[in-house]
Amino acid sequence: MEGGTHAAPRALPYYVAFSQLLGLTVVAMTGAWLGLYRGGIAWTNTLQFNVHPLCMVIGLIFLQGDALLVYRVFRNEAKRTTKVLHGLLHVFAFIIALVGLVAMFNYHRKKGYADLYSLHSWCGIIVFVLYFVQWLVGFSFFLFPGASFSLRSRYRPQHIFFGASIFLFSVGTALLGLKEALLFKLGAKYSTFEPEGVLANVLGLLLVCFGVVVLYILTRTEWKRPSQAEEQALSMDFKTLTEGESPSSQ
Tens digits of per-residue pLDDT, 29-39? Predict the structure, then answer.
């Protein structure tokens, strides 16, 4: 450590790189599955439904996972810069997921299919609403200059817990959707090791692996972003301003 800069733990960059390799592979394999076995992607015809799984994997799996890792990767950048990047990645993830949700509802309306009847759809809507609420509350507490220091401190553990839980919930919901899509198309042939079924099963395993690696990185306490000296000073100043306390009063 020199000049207030903390060196990253030796193993952390390798785990982060592995998580990105897994995440990009998941996105690429989702595209390959849709292209090889589902006819590709389009917005104006029956292929519109295929926009849904691709957007959900990019938004609520890959980008959400990367947003969670921001505080592990950017260890020495200014805290506010890291907060903004964390928030922006979540915004991009939300917008992409919203496009996927709209695609699914549009496709169902064109085909005359019922909405929100399956376990996957129930879980998906819950995940989407929780994700939006989590972002909104996080913005209010940590980016919008209104919450007091003590309120932020009390809410931070809940924010971290619910962030990781929603991510895990997203991975589980994606697995439900993948299984549902296979059963709808393949039916009994799913048990005969159809190539599409095998590819999708591998995709499901990679989704689980990505989720596990991200959660592993997040739960290693020694890999948490260290507090910089200037950030600690600013935190004390913020506490004084919002609560009328001074560092010496503690």
Answer: 999 999 999 99
What end-to-end distance do the CA atoms of the chain give, in Å?
29
Q: With pLDDT > 90 as the criterion, what percentage of the chain qualifies?
A: 76
**83-106: buried (b, 16+ CB within 10 Å) or exposed (e) per residue?**
bebbbebbebbbebbebbbebbeb
Backbone angles phi, psi at 5, to 5 degrees: -95, 125
Q: Which amino acid is at 79?
A: K
Which residues, in sequence order, are bridge partners of residue 5? 2
Question: Helix-strand-coil percent breakdown of the chain, rounded to 5?
Answer: 80, 0, 20
Q: How many helices (H) and strands (E) does the chain have?
A: 8, 0
> Burial level of 198, CB count in 10 A (0-12/13-18/19+)?
exposed
- Give me the DSSP letters along 10-72: TTHHHHHHHHHHHHHHHHHHHHHHHHHHS----SSSGGGGGHHHHHHIIIIIIIHHHHHHHHH
CA distance 125 to 120: 9
Long-range contacts from 163-168, C-beta under 8 angstroms, 24+ separation: 163/68, 163/134, 163/138, 164/68, 164/215, 164/218, 166/64, 166/127, 166/130, 166/131, 166/134, 167/64, 167/65, 167/68, 167/211, 167/214, 167/215, 168/211, 168/215
Q: How much is the pLDDT for 7? A: 66
Residue carrying the six token digits 């991009």 = 92
Partners of 2 in the β-ladder: 5
Let me know how long the chain is. Answer: 250
Q: Is 77 left (phi over 0), alpha (psi -120 to 50) or beta?
A: beta
